[in-house]
Amino acid sequence: MPLTDEPPNKPTPTFKQTLIRVMATQVLWILLLLLVQLHYSR
Amino acid sequence: MHLIDWAILIGWLAYVGIDGIRRTRRSTEIEGYLLANRSLPWWAVGLSVMATQLSAITMIGTTGQGATDGLRFVQFYFGLPLAMVILGVTLVPFLHRSKVYTAYEFLERRFDARTRTLTAFLFLVSRAMSCGAILAAPAVVFSSIFGWPVAYSVAIMGVPTVIYTILGGVEAVTWADVKQMVLVVAAIAAVIITVLVKLPVSPEAALNVAGAVGRMQALDFTFDITQQYTFWSGVIGGTFLMMSYFGTDQSQVQRYLAAKSADQARSSLLISAYWKIPLQAGVLLIGVLVFVFYLFQPPPLLFNPTHDRRVKEAEPAQYQQLASQYSAALAERDRTARGVAARDAASTRDAFRAADTRVQAVRTEALALATRVTGEPSKDVNYIIPHFVLFDLPVGLTGVFIAAVMAAAMSAIAAELNSLATASVIDVYRRWIRPEAPDATYLKASKIATGFWGLFACIIATYAVSLGSLIEVVNRFGSFFYGSILGVFLLAMMKKANALGAFIGLIAGMMAVGIVNFGRPDVAFLWHNVIGAVTVVVVGLGLSTIIPTKPNSLTQ
Questions:
Q1: Which residues, in sequence order, are CB contacts of B277 under 8 Å at separation 6+?
Q2: Predicted local confidence at residue B140, as pLDDT
Q3: pTM score, two decimals?
Q4: Residue A1: predicted pLDDT
Q5: Residues in chain A whose beta carbon is closer than 8 A to a beta carbon of chain B?
Q6: Contacts of residue A39 in chain B, CB cutoff 8 Å?
């Protein structure tokens, strides 16, 4: 199921692709926070 | 405040008001007024959603929380990205294609009028109270700092907001939100840069010092339901809360119902999904950096200037004694903090922690004295950032930050007022009082409802101070409903669920949360959302199975 209405000649991301992108981004933010925490809380 | 700061502040308020009025020409019918003719682009809706979320409580309270408690609060938002994606494929397209004005209108089509009316009523009550609280928080702080009555602060923020919301409807609100978001982000960036420039140590050293006393600990993986902010309460409880808030609360639903299409509505939510966590981390980081700033620049004994003055007048000897102890403790903390910053021996970190503990002990005593003298709660977390902004930000940036706080309050209130008016007119007035009136009647009713709720919020805000922990009450009150309301909407998407199940399930959900709230008040409120939603779904589905009814057109 497409999740954005980008121009028709550009492939629109499916729900699975969007979910992966969003969760990957979130994991990255959380990892970044974890790194910051480990670095500064020694 | 300097004249330049006042000029920036007044200029901003005037600009928002004028721009809001300018947009009234497009809001002459009910669909234009309530849903901007469903014409808003996804990025405007998305920024508006984020602006509504970033209230003045965030600008003042969350930053203050960062100063006293570090980055931990960011975990509260860990459920948001997943919630946005789930909503994007479930409720959002459903509601957008249903062409409804309110989320509760949909509930009548799916279940029955009493389920719709109950959920709408719960929304109206909890939102109206929270609107007052959102206005009260910055109003109380400004009043204390500027020395004027709370009613003035309430009026300065409340009146322009009510005017542009009444005149312009959701279109004016959304575009005001977009500008306010730009201002808020600029103010946050300006404060971070200013603090970093003014610190006598490098940014790396500053964060190192903050880390020594736990301010850089963002993640807490312990599974303890009595701990307010942990990774688990954020991811699990937070997902339910965010799904409920963004999926079923009319103040958010109305935003994406105003988008051009269901796809644009979904895309608007994804902006929050990607950027909410770093934005909140940035807000908390301000607090952390201000904490570090006050390690090297003596902070006041009491950040609330009114309390400080009253205690000094009422108990001069005791105040003086505490002030001397405070100076000595601050000097020791300053010395050890510089040692940590310079990466001296490891024992310096212990000495710094001990010094910080002594400073906190004196502050606790001073706060207790303030409570005795004033008879009011003395916790001054909300005054830390305003103090910094007024005394330590350069001229011009003070005005920008104060304007951003007002902008944040105004955008949050405007959204609430808009949604309160919509639910009042669509779910109460049109449903029960005048079902067949022309559009012009409903448009007029919407404007009157906006004015009414605006006045209500201003009155609540003005008297919030004397009710002490109203904000606490409002939060707990709201937490009764969010999970349960989400449960009803989840049931709506299950074919087997019927109206009786939904209605009884909703009541059962609220009762379950009530029992936990009173029986185990130590359970963190984020978990209430899970309890409410699960109870509603289990009871609702169970009852629907035991007492099935004829399916209506929406379930077939």
A1: A26, A29, A30, B74, B77, B78, B80, B81
A2: 80
A3: 0.82
A4: 46
A5: 1-5, 15, 18-19, 22-23, 25-26, 29-30, 33-34, 36-37, 39-42
A6: 211
In a mutagenesis test of the B interface, which of A3, A21, A34 is the best target, namely the one with the most B β-carbons within 10 Å? A3
Residues of chain A with C-beta less than 8 angstroms from the C-beta of B261: 5
Please state, as a whole number, how many other Cβ atoms lie within 10 Å of the Cβ of residue B549.
Answer: 12
Q: In this structure, what token pair is assigned to residue B13?
A: 């308020």
Number of cross-chain residue pairs from A and B with Cβ atoms under 8 Å apart: 75
- Tens of pLDDT, residue by residue over A1-42, are 445 555 555 566 777 788 888 889 999 999 999 999 999 886
pLDDT of residue B241: 84
CB–CB contact B261 A34 (8 Å) = no
Taking CA atoms, B203 is separated from B74, B193, B341, in Å, by: 21, 10, 10
pLDDT single digits (tens) B204-218: 999 999 999 999 999
Token pair for B252 = 């958010």
Q: How far apart are the first and last CA of chain A?
A: 46
**Exposed e or buried b for every residue in B448-477, given b needs 16+ CB within 10 A?**
ebbbbbbebbbebbbebbeeeebbeebeeb
Average confidence (pLDDT) over B156-167: 84
Q: What is the ipTM of this complex?
A: 0.78
Phi first, then psi: what are they for B257, rounded to 5°? Answer: -65, -20
Mean pLDDT throughout B349-355?
Answer: 92
- Cα gap B57→B40, rounded to integer Å: 27
Distance, in Å, from the CA atom of B276 to the CA atom of B254, rounded to the nearest integer, reads 20
Cα B99 from Cα B395, distance rounded (Å): 49
A12, A23, A36: which to substitute to probe chain B, counting the most B Cβ within 10 Å? A36
The β-bridge partners of B259 are B40
* Residue written as token pair 């005795």: B372
Give chain B's largest Cα–Cα span: 79
Contact check, Cβ <8 Å, A33/B211: no
